[in-house]
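Entry for the shared binder. Reason: the reviewer on the internal report wants the predicted structure included alongside the sequence.
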Amino acid sequence: MLHDKDFEYYEKLAHWSFDEYDCYSESLTDWDLYEILKSVVTPDSHVLDLGTGGGEKLLANFPDCAEIVGTDYSPNMVATALENLAKSGRKNITFKVMDNLHMDVPDNHFDVVVARHTCIDAEQIFRCLKPGGYLLIRGVDKYDCWDLKKTVGYGQGFDDPVPISIVDYENVLAAGFRDVELVPLHEREFFKDAETFKAFLGVVPILDHMPEDDSLDKYIAKNTYSGRVRLLRNCYGITARK
């Protein structure tokens, strides 16, 4: 399993939803994970979603096909996903508890593997994909919310010597994938007000803890537009084929 503190963190967030925070996003990059997914999935496809969380994104955005398996290493997250599945009425979808670094899935079984904001083992993913199968990754790393992290002096991946995007990219290549592309993704998120923004930061892993000085207030003052607080996101996308 992953680190205990990560496990405990996601167990507590099992019923958390991004929709609770009045926020809207603007994408500055023409790269959409779900549009790419829809373009490669056929009615006969078998799809694996790693780090599925409560299954909300899977249920809302994955196209119908022969099989979709969503996995998460948090039992509470998977329990929430099963509740959401029952409400959705969708078919051919299952959820299971699994550690991405110790994958319990058949070899040469899936046509598409999706990994969103989660750790991966590229070699294990390679083994479970059919020849010609696709790997689609969307993640965050050192430079996500970099202006915020630089202002407060710490945060998720702040001290990483190499960004996770580069680590993932190199590992995907080393595992034997072809047609590997790494795309930087830039977005702006706008929160209703400072209180909502601070509440959001209190439940996501962007900052390890809330700052005790006035650095966060300085960031908010510098990034408030028409009353809304702007957060600059820098993510990455990777596409590859076996």
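Summary line for the report: The longest strand covers residues 178-191.
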